[in-house]
Design goal:
The chain contains twelve helices and two strands; from the N terminus they run ααααββαααααααα. It is mainly α. It has a two-stranded antiparallel sheet with strand order 1-2.
Length: 310
């Protein structure tokens, strides 16, 4: 317990100087900031079957509240937004550690999940929405993946084009990649050879997808999990990581076959069919009930992105 306490105290404590050159943005808040419909919208967004947190109030209980409850919540939240002290219970969070990878004896290999009370999450959601409304007008285009509804696809494409042009014209090029400890974009500048191929990036995606399939092998072969659930797991955990950055790929026929082999491997495990059963890929796709192949999905993503760029 002391080991975890020391780890989280170090992780959650900032040891940096304040930026004295940047003045904080002031937002004028007075009177009624939110109304009852906004409170109802935030309550409806609360997820079901979640831990209630320190106050032990389930989100489903708040959702079943009457107009009187929503009116009281709106009044309380407006008071807090106008400077009234927030209840101490709302500032308490239970930290749960979930193992991610590597040695289970190392604390940094776990992801810490903070479980706050339901009302604290409700207040945080409303406060976040208000800040986002104010900040949207100040966001820069360079923020990319840190903005709502934006990805890093454009930035990856620009980096690739820049490196390719420098290689073609034999120019010296120096790149500085800024990364964060808890937010690492899976993009390697060193992955580009002199021919500017995407082979290494695709190989890395395939390797990561196969590792994920291996970890979920028991789920795919299980008779208890239905076919629909297995397909959802594949699309969420495997396919999303496999096709990361696919909008900027230039796929050869060899790479296309390798990518489709990963997909068919997951589908065969889903149906409980091995290669020894000698079932053709076309029949596997028919049993799964999905039209088109992985290459078709990649082409669709690329066309959507090309339309965005155009």
């Amino acid at each position: 317990m002391n080991k975890w306490k020391e780890y989280y105290e170090k992780l959650l404590t900032e040891n940096r100087q304040e930026y004295s050159t940047i003045s904080p943005t002031e937002i004028n808040i007075s009177g009624e900031v939110i109304n009852i419909p906004q409170t109802k919208k935030a309550v409806a967004a609360l997820k079901n079957n979640r831990a209630p947190g320190p106050q032990n109030i389930p989100g489903e209980l708040v959702k079943c509240g009457t107009e009187k409850l929503f009116k009281a919540l709106t009044w309380c939240i407006n008071r807090f937004l106008n400077g009234a002290p927030i209840p101490k219970e709302w500032k308490i969070a239970y930290i749960s550690s979930i193992h991610k990878k590597g040695n289970k004896q190392v604390c940094s290999n776990y992801r810490g999940i903070s479980v706050t009370s339901t009302l604290s999450r409700l207040y945080g959601r409303i406060l976040r929405d208000l800040i986002e409304q104010e900040y949207q007008q100040q966001e820069e285009e360079e923020q990319s993946g840190f903005r709502t509804g934006r990805t890093c696809t454009d930035n990856i494409f620009c980096l690739k084009q820049l490196i390719e042009k420098k290689v073609v014209f034999i120019r010296r090029h120096t790149s500085c990649l800024l990364t964060f400890t808890k937010h690492m974009i899976p993009f390697q500048l060193t992955d580009y050879s002199r021919t500017a191929k995407d082979d290494k990036d695709i190989k890395k995606r395939i390797s990561q997808a196969r590792r994920t399939i291996g970890c979920l092998n028991g789920v795919f072969w299980s008779n208890e999990a239905g076919k629909k659930r297995k397909i959802n797991i594949y699309q969420t955990l495997v396919k999303s990581s496999l096709l990361y950055g696919a909008e900027t790929w230039r796929i050869t026929e060899a790479n296309r076959k390798k990518l489709e082999a990963v997909e068919m491997d997951a589908y065969r495990r889903t149906l409980g069919i091995s290669r020894r059963d000698r079932v053709r890929n076309e029949e596997i796709q028919q049993r799964i009930g999905i039209e088109g192949s992985l290459a078709t999905d990649i082409e669709r993503q690329q066309l959507m992105w090309y339309g965005h760029v155009g």
